[in-house]
Amino acid sequence: NSRTKSLLSQLEKINLDSILGEADNARYITSKILHLVQSQEKTRKEMTSKGSTGIDIILSTLEVKPFNLCGYGYKDCLCGGRRANVLVTKGGTQILLQLLLTASKDCPPNEELMVLLHTLLAKIGPKDKKIGMKARINGSLNISLNLVKQNLQNHRLLLPCLQVLRVYSTNSVNAVSLGKNGVVELLFKIIGPFTKRNTSLMKVALDTLAALLKSKTNARRAVDRGYVQLLLTIYIDWHRHDSRHRYVLIRKGVLQCIRSVTNIKLGRKAFIDANGMKILYNTSQECLAVRTLDPLVNTSSLIMRKCFPKNRLPLPTIKSAFHFQLPVIPASGPVAQLYSLPPDVDDVVDESDDNDDAETESEVETENDDDKDQLFKNDDIETDINKLKPREELGRPIEELKMYEHLFPELSENFQKYDLISKEPKPFVPDANLGGPIVVPTAGEE
């Protein structure tokens, strides 16, 4: 403990000096602190304990010293478990975003520095619910996107940038902004055509794409460019080539993208037109024998249920297992029109996203954007306790029950203290000695 405190005090002293040569010394001290953090669990707890200034000193070092000269051990010093939470509460997100903005002004930017900054942001991003808003206000939202555009073949830098974009995309406003800048098209270049190289990059790209497609604006953009057919083709390729089921997460990631696209009416129509029902049904049948593939079957079932044409009852067509015949069918009118429709026609009008364009233009971020799913209320669930309580009704009227009143005097008597002399009731007044000691009568006393 004394060794750690000594190193931190030396690092704090270096922060106060403006000598450029002290950067090497700061890097040396940082490496020592890193070694202690990695080798001693007690040191890790001490760095993040309440009242400790370890994280503050490290963050101040990042602010006042050139980051690329202070050592790259900060990735392990700052991130992981409780340290990431403490880092967020200390304002580490803003510091890293500012460093990213400053480093991006170099031409060309330092690749090693960019990899490290994005790795740090990807690790602490899930701990900070406001990181998307902070990145947009800071102006560093498009830095990661530009790096992706310029380094599609540089997988070492591409992977952490996609991880950061995945964190940014959880914010609806950021998702729309990134979609307008062409990130959806870039991600489809990464996930297709089929290849088993860089599967970790493929998994991150699919997760990022699924988060972006939750925005209806991005989903319509994907449908207009014919990406629904491409997603089904990619899923078939992975289904055929993954005979040992080693890439279930990638296959599920493709299904999540399809599920996000089919949240809108145009996506469901494109899915039906691309023969998606038959594709998912056949692949699900082949997955039933393997229990580890149940997540794929469940997700496929949700997509098929959502996209299957809806019909009103009674169903006179072959699509129903039961046949309900109306007693009287008029010769003309809406009922006759429904009965005259062919079997494959969806007779329920889907107006779920007719006003999506107007809603998209008015998308404004609120403080609880990230809690929408948790605060979602199901209208079918009754929450009024009074309505949920069963109503107790008497089997007989009150008049018939009065005949039993003398059997239960405690239900109707007015309990008052009677005056033993006048035999008249008087208001009940508690005794003054009511709080005093209790006197137990002795033997022979009444």
TrEMBL record:
One of its GO terms (molecular function) is carboxypeptidase activity. Pfam families: TPR_CCP1_N (PF25571). Residues 343-374, 426-446 are annotated as: Disordered. The keyword Protease applies. SUPFAM superfamilies: ARM repeat. InterPro entries: ARM-like, ARM-type_fold. Residues 344-372 have a biased composition (Acidic residues). Keywords: Carboxypeptidase, Hydrolase, Protease. The keyword Membrane does not apply. Transmembrane segments: none annotated. This is CBPC1 carboxypeptidase. It comes from Piaya cayana.
